[in-house]
Input
Amino acid sequence: MGKVIMVMIDGLRYDTACMQMGYLNHLVEKNLAARFLVKTELPTVSRPLYEVLLTGTAPHVSGITSNDIIRLSEQKSIFHLAKEKGLKTAAAAYFFISELYNHVPYDIIEDREQRDENSAIQYGKFYFDDSYPDSHLMIDGEILRRRYDPDFLLIHPMGMDYVGHLFGPDSKEYRKQAIELDRWFAWLAPGWMENNYHIVITSDHGMNNDGLHQGISPDERHVPLFTISSAFKPGFYSEEVPQLAIAPMVCKLLKLELTEEMSTFNILS
Ligand SMILES: [Zn+2]
Output
C-alpha cells in the first residue's frame, strides 16, 4: 500500500518554485523526482482551490466559489475516500481545511488540535493565523507523521501567501520564504523518501505583481507540482497539467477508487 504526503503550499508561483527551490530541483535534475507545470482552476483563490485539490471538483460543481462560502464540502474528499477504505488520515493545515472536511465553523479552542477516528481528517492540527510560521507548520506535519503513521498526510504552509500579500511576489521576502521552505524539504524529504512515501508538492494558486490573486493571469494560475515517487517518470515537464488531475492522481497512489466527478487526465507513468 502506498502512503502519500501531500504538501499544499499556499500561494507559491511556478516561476518562484523553479528558480528558488534548489533542493527540489536537484532531485529532478538527478532523476529522483518530476516537476510539472500546473494550470489552476478559477477563481485563483484558496477555499475553491482546496476543493479542487482535495476532491477533484471545480468550483461550479463544488459550490465553493469563494472564500466566503463557509460550510462543509458536499463532495467526497481524498480524506473521506481514504477513511472509508480503513486508511489513516491526518492534516497540519489552515483552519479552512477543518471547516471543509471536519467541523464548521472553526472553534479556535476545540478545533485547534483534533483526534477523532470518525472524522474525515482523523488527526489534525489546524492553525488560524495567516502568519503562523512555516517552520512550526512543517514540524506539526512531521509530528503527525511520526506519531500516527497516516496513510494520507496533508501539510499546508501559509507563509508564501502571507508574505506575497505583504511584499508582492517580486520581493526579497517572497523569494526568501520559498528558500526557507526548500530548506525544510531538504531536511525532511530524505526521511520521507527512506520510508517510501509518495511525495506530492504543489500549490493552490500563484500571486500577481500587486500581491493579489483571484484572476486568470499566468502569475496567478501557474503553480508547480513536484512528485517524488516511483510512480512517475522523473524529469522536467513543461506542458500544462490541469489542476483537476491532482486529486485523482493522489487517489490512484493510495489505491482508492475515483469519484464520478473526478477527471480522467493521467499524469502517472
Ligand atoms: Zn492569499
Q: What stands out?
A: The chain has one domain: 3-253. The mean pLDDT is 97. DSSP finds eleven helices and nine strands in the chain.
